[in-house]
Structure to design on (366 residues):
């Protein structure tokens, strides 16, 4: 037992050291000066300068059509998600539970945050059509990222809001990001916003993947030994004046816990679209693709909410097993997310050209 504890401590320190050293090395080898940025063109409706230069091959008619189509999809699915998560009273056997070291917690708050995430993202997409992605748009983009922050905090705390720290961290992040995005000069404002946004996009991928792996692993060990949740569920349930007859459907093709794949796939599409437009930020096709990935991402999230409020599993409880995430492991994940975000920003800004030490941040220090 003592040897195991010593090994865990050494492993934790080694992980932190490697991740931090990698991030520090990447930061110190960044060029000390930003390259020349091509001229920007004013937004069509506001006249404000956006957070991107001239986009080659971008046709307004094509871009607007895709934007309106995707915006309509996100708007419809997001409002359905809000209704299912906040107003619809689902039978108890459809709601999953988070199982962690602190006990079992219904996933209702998580479902609500996913629905809020979908709705805020709809408004961010809608406003980007009218005012383009710019300083004026940044409060809505910050709202989109703040929803991601809330989801990550909730999952780190076992699926519940443990204290007022949840709201403090969310407000502090939102206020800091919105303020810096407003006051930083171009192109530092756009780079900063993209950099911090990618961090949380990576964290969502890591977090949902870990949740999926842990749940699959635990389910495999337990087999079908678990009894169905709420086995005494009646055919009719009355909740606050709303009658729900047995309208739930059994999970067949997407059996529990396969609905977690929707979260993983949605987060991968989201980070994929953002990385494409980061690396190919002057190509029209990248912006078309980014917009389409938003439609896929938030439709999948809304479908996840549907399954969590309308579908039950006839063979076992709907339980998600939370992976143990000590502070050192959570810190390591955030460091690697920061590293990956900075790496892609560096490639997008400077390419793969060789840079001598004297022209880097390290060179300016020594």
């Amino acid at each position: 037992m003592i040897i195991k504890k010593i090994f865990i401590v050494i492993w934790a320190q080694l992980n932190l050291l490697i991740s931090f050293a990698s991030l520090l090395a990447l930061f110190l080898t960044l060029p000390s000066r930003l390259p020349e940025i091509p001229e920007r063109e004013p937004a069509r409706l506001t006249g404000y300068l956006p957070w991107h230069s001239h986009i080659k091959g971008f046709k307004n008619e094509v871009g607007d059509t895709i934007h309106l189509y995707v915006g309509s999809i996100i708007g419809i699915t997001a409002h359905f998600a809000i209704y299912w998560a906040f107003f619809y009273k689902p039978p108890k056997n459809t709601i999953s539970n988070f199982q962690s070291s602190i006990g079992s917690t219904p996933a209702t708050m998580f479902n609500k945050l996913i629905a809020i995430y979908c709705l805020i993202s709809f408004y961010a997409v809608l406003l980007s059509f009218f005012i383009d992605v710019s300083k004026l748009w940044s409060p809505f983009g910050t709202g989109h990222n703040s929803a991601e922050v809330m989801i990550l905090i909730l999952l780190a705390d076992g699926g519940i809001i443990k204290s007022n720290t949840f709201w403090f961290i969310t407000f502090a992040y939102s206020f800091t990001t919105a303020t810096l995005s407003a006051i930083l000069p171009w192109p530092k404002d756009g780079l900063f916003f993209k950099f911090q946004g990618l961090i949380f996009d990576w964290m969502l991928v890591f977090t949902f993947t870990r949740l999926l792996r842990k749940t699959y692993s635990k389910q495999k060990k337990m087999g079908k030994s678990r009894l169905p949740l709420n086995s005494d569920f009646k055919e009719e349930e009355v909740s606050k004046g709303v009658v729900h007859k047995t309208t739930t459907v059994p999970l067949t093709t997407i059996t529990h816990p396969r609905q977690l794949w929707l979260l993983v796939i949605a987060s991968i599409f989201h980070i994929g679209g953002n990385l494409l437009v980061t690396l190919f930020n002057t190509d029209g096709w990248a912006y078309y693709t980014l917009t389409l990935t938003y439609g896929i991402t938030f439709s999948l999230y809304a479908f996840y909410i549907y399954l969590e409020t309308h579908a039950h599993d006839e063979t076992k409880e709907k339980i998600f097993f939370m992976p143990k995430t000590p502070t050192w492991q959570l810190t390591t994940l955030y460091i690697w997310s920061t590293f990956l975000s900075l790496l892609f920003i560096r490639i997008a800004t400077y390419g793969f050209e060789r840079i001598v030490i004297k022209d880097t941040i390290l060179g300016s220090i020594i």
